[in-house]
Design a protein that fits this description.
Layout: E1 6-9, E2 15-18, H1 22-40, E3 56-57, E4 75-76, H2 83-102
Parallel strand pairs: 3-4
Antiparallel strand pairs: 1-2
């Protein structure tokens, strides 16, 4: 049985093989972290409806790919303007996703980690 993987070239020109792409990694890790924090702090109301955001950063390139896995709204690359605006944008993106797909309520004061 052959194993599926993705091949990436890093900034030094080396090929790196991974079982999942950057976007699957970051979203999977985001949800894992959220579950761990909710479990660990289940008696703390500040963690009940916390919003965690994730993004993919390509500091050395202009990222011009698209595909089923790629989420354009969470990309930071050489053409991005500023890191502060990027952080705001990824929280806006994930807030919208939570509201649309998971129908949770967001507290007026968000805990930003």
């Amino acid at each position: 049985m052959s194993k599926w993987y993705m091949v990436f070239t890093d900034r030094y020109g080396y090929e790196v093989r991974k079982n999942e792409g950057s976007f699957a990694q970051v979203t999977g890790n985001m949800f894992s972290l959220k579950n761990i924090l909710k479990s660990k702090f289940r008696n703390n109301n500040h963690f009940k409806n916390m919003l965690i955001a994730a993004g993919v950063v390509f500091p050395d390139i202009e990222f011009n790919s698209d595909g089923e896995e790629i989420i354009q709204e969470i990309i930071y690359d050489q053409k991005s303007e500023g890191i502060s605006q990027y952080i705001n944008n990824i929280f806006d993106y994930w807030r919208t996703q939570y509201l649309q797909h998971f129908r949770i309520r967001i507290l007026k004061k968000l805990l930003i980690i």
